[in-house]
Amino acid sequence: MKSPSLNRAMVISGGGCKGAFGGGVAEYLIRHCQNDYDLFIGTSAGSLLVPLLALGEVERIKKVYTSIRQKDIFNICPFIIKKHNRHFTYKINHFNTLRMFLKGKKTFGESLSLRKLIRRTFTEDDYHRLRQSGVEVMVTVSNLSCNYVEYQSVHNNRYEDFCDWMWASANVVPFMSLHYKDGMEYADGGFGNYLPLQEALRRGAKEVDAIILQPKERDLKCQLPVSNPFALLLRTYDFMLEQISIDDLDLGRLESLHRQAQVNCYHTPRLLTENSFIFDPEQMTAWWQEGYEYALANAPNCVLIAGGG
């Protein structure tokens, strides 16, 4: 038995490794609430999740997202990350950043490994199945050359192009690659629209499940001073994304009132990490399960179905 899902959309924000939590929420909503979605829109980490979620390939994207490591994202990583008793420390990889400088690159690191991972995970057969399904899937990218946000649809792009848009949507510059296309520069969609809720509503969604990879209320406890320039950049980026996410959610809620649409929000219950570039399988596996359990406790109109999960 499936719940009513006319003009329903799933929106997943950016969040890097925190996307594992979003995947857990999505698994519960799709597999156990059995929600049907006409539209999926993702930003950054969300863009990596939505194509296979739209196909119902939850186990496949779960296996990938809970097993990736730094080498699966970066071919040239700008960080040196060490793990001590489940705690992480990181610092600048001076050798790799120097390599990028000598190569004349504009970023500190390079994420060509992620580009390859996307094409291994989301195959050309998946692309054709998705186009034939009738479900709309879109990814959010920031056009840095023209200073505006673009929403790239699987139905308006060839396979190779759509994979590149997924890649661009997840590239947080200056730590990851800058994508060049048609003479323009593209980067992480979160720079312009961290949570594309308003876009889903503008496209006619009457009910939206919005997965937001930030806590609803932040701990006001101050952090210790940063120890290096990269840590300062990361903290600045995190601060910027938090403010953008608040604005996106407020604008989306105003839009939903105007259009008389329902928005169901799923925030992380706490701050999962201060560095969304640390890809650790153990940590991400735990977050996926935590996201699933959070949705189990908070999903509306899913009580009866939940008992069978």
Short account of what is shown:
It is built from twelve helices and ten strands. Helix 6 packs across helix 8.
SSE class: alpha/beta
Q: Taking all residues together, what is the mean pLDDT?
A: 89
Residue fraction in strands:
15-25%
**Which stretches of 5+ consecutive residues score pLDDT under 50?**
1-6, 304-309
Shape: globular
First-to-last CA distance:
13 Å
Total beta strands: 10
Approximately how much helix is present in the residues?
40-55%
Order of helices and strands: EHEHHHEEHHHEEHEEHEHEHH
> How many helical elements?
12
Radius of gyration (Å): 19 Å
Largest sheet: 8 strands, mixed
Describe the structure.
The chain is 44% helix and 19% strand. By secondary structure, the protein is an alpha/beta fold. Strands 1, 2, 5, 6, 7, 8, 9 and 10 form an eight-stranded mixed β-sheet that branches. A two-stranded antiparallel ribbon has the order 3-4.
How is the secondary structure organized here?
Elements: E1 8-12, H1 19-32, E2 39-43, H2 45-54, H3 58-65, H4 70-73, E3 79-84, E4 87-92, H5 94-102, H6 112-121, H7 124-133, E5 136-143, E6 148-153, H8 159-169, E7 179-181, E8 184-188, H9 197-202, E9 207-215, H10 229-259, E10 262-268, H11 281-298, H12 303-306
Helix pairs in contact: 1-2, 1-3, 1-11, 6-8
List keywords for this structure.
309 residues; alpha/beta; eight-stranded mixed sheet; 19% strand; disordered C terminus
